[in-house]
């Protein structure tokens, strides 16, 4: 029997090996997809290069002699090399490695297969180096995607690995569809048309969580904020009619389909039923009801004065007022007293000095 130490080391080793194998499997699946992507880039760039060089020639010297002696430029090895040189960015290792590894296949296709197999992607990526599959197929053996290669995922999703030698063929459904075959509808949608090979999911009425048709009477279940009426149709719940109101005292409630919102009352209101100064339940301090709306109180025009100090004046503000000392007066010890002018202050100081001198004599 193994001791505790060797057992732990063995378990750790097995765990490490398992993790490595898992990473390798994940990377290999990723590589199978990326290989096809790289091959697609190469063949697309080859076709662009073919178009780019379509009207070129040997580019110098006696072109007629060169074409007679070295074969026509359009089918020449020189043109092939010019195209191949532009297949990859210099920074793309995968692309350059694939081109270098299979350069002889480009020569074979160029000189021997191009006429019979004009689709380079199909001949090179799918049939020759076998890193891609035809559209609608996936995996090492190019099996048909769910729903068939003509219409993967029944036209309502994407097949994992579609067109590559990777992936597992499972469907990632488009919005509003779900299920292994992307034929079922998510909540909020219903099957307008449905058979074994086709499904059309249409949105329910806005009041329905689930439904069997397009109207609010076809709801299986109402959404939050909606409720069944006497005709078993989903109708809006008016949260604003509830007592007490769901909003704060300085707010009014605004009902919306399936919900509500709370809005701030006008500043002239102390509680309100809607927007504006004419919807106040009570006027705020400093305001009064005038012909159905809250207006500012001019405190300075009241019969009883609000600024009661001697030599004090009143200025009305929106919703309030301010008391201040009249011109020529200033506030001292909560009283409005006359300001002492600078000249009078100097005369007073001179008088005090003279009086003090006389006293000393």
UniProtKB/TrEMBL annotation:
The keyword Calcium applies. It is found in: Endoplasmic reticulum. It comes from Pagothenia borchgrevinki. Residues 141-183, 296-337 form the EGF-like domain. Disulfide bonds join 173-182. Residues 351-361 have a biased composition (Low complexity). Belongs to the CRELD family. This is EGF-like domain-containing protein. Residues 1-28 form the signal peptide. It comes from the Eukaryota. GO terms for cellular component: endoplasmic reticulum. The keyword Disulfide bond applies. Keywords: Calcium, Disulfide bond, EGF-like domain, Endoplasmic reticulum, Repeat, Signal. Its main location: endoplasmic reticulum. InterPro entries: DUF3456, EGF, EGF-like_Ca-bd_dom, EGF-type_Asp/Asn_hydroxyl_site, EGF_Ca-bd_CS, Furin_repeat, Growth_fac_rcpt_cys_sf, LE_dom. PANTHER family: EGF-LIKE DOMAIN-CONTAINING PROTEIN (PTHR24039:SF58), FIBRILLIN-RELATED (PTHR24039). Residues 336-361 are annotated as: Disordered. It holds the Pfam family DUF3456.
């Amino acid at each position: 029997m193994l001791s505790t130490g060797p057992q732990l080391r063995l378990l750790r080793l097995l765990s490490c090996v398992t993790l490595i194998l898992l990473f390798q499997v994940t990377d290999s699946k990723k590589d199978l997809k990326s290989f096809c992507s790289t091959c697609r880039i190469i063949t697309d760039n080859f076709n662009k290069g073919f178009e780019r060089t379509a009207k070129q020639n040997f580019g110098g010297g006696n072109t007629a002699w060169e074409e007679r002696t070295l074969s026509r430029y359009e089918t020449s090895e020189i043109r092939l090399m010019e195209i191949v040189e532009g297949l990859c960015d210099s920074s793309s290792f995968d692309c350059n490695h694939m081109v270098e590894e299979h350069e002889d296949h480009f020569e074979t296709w160029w000189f021997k297969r191009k006429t019979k197999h004009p689709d380079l992607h199909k001949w090179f990526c799918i049939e020759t180096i076998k890193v891609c599959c035809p559209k609608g197929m996936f995996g090492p053996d190019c099996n048909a995607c769910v729903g068939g290669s003509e219409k993967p995922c029944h036209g309502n999703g994407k097949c994992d690995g579609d067109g590559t030698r990777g992936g597992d063929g499972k469907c990632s459904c488009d919005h509003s569809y779900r299920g292994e075959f992307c034929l079922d509808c998510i909540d909020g949608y219903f099957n307008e048309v449905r058979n074994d090979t086709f499904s059309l999911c249409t949105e329910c009425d806005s009041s329905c969580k689930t439904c069997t048709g397009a109207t609010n009477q076809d709801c299986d279940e109402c959404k939050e904020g909606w409720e069944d009426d006497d005709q078993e149709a989903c109708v809006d719940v008016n949260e604003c009619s509830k007592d007490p109101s769901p909003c704060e005292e300085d707010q009014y409630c605004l009902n919306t389909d399936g919900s509500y919102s709370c809005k701030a009352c006008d500043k002239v209101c102390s509680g309100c039923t809607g927007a504006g100064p004419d919807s106040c339940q009570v006027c705020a301090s400093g305001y009064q009801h005038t012909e159905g709306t809250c207006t500012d109180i001019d405190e300075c025009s009241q019969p009883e004065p609000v600024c009661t100090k001697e030599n004090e004046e009143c200025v009305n503000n929106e919703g309030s007022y301010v008391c201040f000392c009249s011109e020529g007066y200033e506030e001292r010890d909560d009283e409005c007293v006359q300001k002492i002018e600078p000249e009078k202050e100097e005369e007073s100081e001179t008088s005090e000095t003279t009086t003090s001198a006389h006293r000393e004599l």
